[in-house]
Write a structure and sequence with these properties.
two-stranded antiparallel sheet; 6 helices; mainly alpha; 180 residues; single chain
């Protein structure tokens, strides 16, 4: 059985940092800033849930028989953002992050936590750049169904909200912290 190890950066145990405050998403005006605001809020929520934990804690799977871990959720959402926004919507010719089903959840190494957190933030920026000039009505084929960018934003917000609920439970099981 693989035992996670503590991550050391410059001789110090690495701890997931607290993300910046995102403030409230707009509730009026054009729909695009509203969608982006809610997406950004949910993105930062996962980082808030992870903040203060070390790599070993992020790799824990404390709710058996589930394989959910905070590190797995970080990796999964990085994959989700890349797949939907950069590959499907923007049509970028880039590799998928994980090619084996559930590899994002299953193939964990606590030492990869700092890079996984950094990769998630980098992917957000790249995803936002990839779609920023596309209209919300821009459509793509997803498994034979035409889907608009607006619908994809709503789907991503739903995906983030669902997984943040999972992350909240995992975090509470690790150290009792809730409501991040």
């Amino acid at each position: 059985m693989h035992r996670p190890r503590l991550v050391s950066v410059n001789g110090m145990t690495w701890i997931a940092p607290e993300p910046p405050d995102d403030g409230p998403a707009p509730d009026t005006g054009d729909i695009r800033p509203i969608l982006q605001g809610y997406l950004d809020h949910h993105r930062l929520t996962l980082l808030r849930i992870c903040a203060g934990l070390n790599g070993e804690q992020l790799a824990l799977r404390p709710v058996p028989p589930s394989t959910l871990s905070l590190l797995g959720l970080v990796r999964h959402m990085t994959k989700v953002e890349r797949t939907w926004l950069r590959i499907r919507v923007a049509g970028e010719d880039i590799a998928a992050l994980f090619t084996i089903p559930d590899e994002d959840f299953d193939d964990l190494d606590s030492a990869s936590a700092p890079q996984a957190i950094a990769d998630l933030a980098t992917e957000w920026a790249q995803c936002d750049m990839a779609v920023k000039n596309l209209p919300l009505g821009h459509c793509v084929d997803v498994r034979g169904q035409e889907v608009s960018l607006a619908s994809i934003y709503v789907h991503l917000i739903e995906e983030w909200a669902r997984h943040n609920g999972h992350a909240d439970i995992v975090r509470q099981t690790i150290d009792g912290v809730t409501g991040r």
